[in-house]
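pasting NAD-dependent epimerase/dehydratase domain-containing protein for the record, 359 residues
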Amino acid sequence: MQCIDGKTVCVTSGTNFFASELIKTLLEKGCHVRTTVRDCQNLAKTQHLIEMQTQFNGQLELLEAEFIEPGAFDKVVEGCEYVFHTSFPSDHPYHSPDVATLGTKHLFDSVAKHKGQVKKVIITSSFACICGFADGEVPGGGRAVFNEEDWNSTSTKDHRPFLYVKVCAERAAWASVEEHKIPMVVLCPTHELSPPLPASPDGSWKMPWMYIKAMLEGGIVDIDFPIIDNRDLAVAHIKAAELTGVSNERIIVSHAHKFPPSWVMSKMQEMFPDIELGKPDPPQYQEPTPFLDNSKMRDLLGVELRPVEETLRDTCQSFIDKGMAKPVPKGQDLSRNPPLVTGVKPPSLGGHHYTTINL
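structre below
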């Protein structure tokens, strides 16, 4: 194990929801962090990073980089011992499978120029690369739950292209590792929740953001999915970097269950008794059900996750404190509040039909 404290590291796409949490965690460990942004002057995206620069004097460097250009990452990764490629920016105007593949290739081409310095690349992929959330989709090998051997084969450029882009980006990473022989670990998180650092949601954060906001404002929610706390996800990334024996691995980072709206909202009502919450759909109380295998996360990385209840409480409280949601006081009529919020839901492993939302 090689301690990352005080090292120089790179984090790509620094303005996104998870990258911001990872940067904060690395700075707290004394690391010098270089992160890429598309426009340093876009304060709506970068203000929280600028505040971190002030808080951690001299530790955080913001570099403008356009990932679709060859050599865009050369100066970013130079002198870095670890590279965290946190996500393909899904809100990019040229968002496409080809661009996702090209951006990933350019990163590894830059890392290859500094192979003597870079010890490992950590990729933030997505559980969407494992499961495409398609109707009737089931785990491979006759298994009851999904694991790292599964690949999303149901998403295409025409059907849930947002998920397909993620699959293309991860496959490009594995191809680049084969070409350049660079140590890599791929982490596949599920739906990310935690107190948000950025002021507005980016692509990967839009659905959980809508989910929490709708529930706090009395909306009806029919989305159920597995959850990972971004703070735990940041720890998993650092562990993946530090553990020298963990290389060329694909690891799901998530709680093992999917959480139905009735369970989530019952917990929220206990935590916030003065708020009038909406009704879950279906209204009957349901317990969380096993959905995925997270044993590699626990066995290889030694990561133990905080309780989902803690994640929900902290996330909701942050939304309230920052004015990102306007809760309805207990006893108030909800008839004028947001209607059904629906979205891509994990397959039930029993063949139920689900509606989708275009993000």
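The longest helix spans residues 161-180.
Residues 90 and 203 are 5 Å apart (CA to CA).
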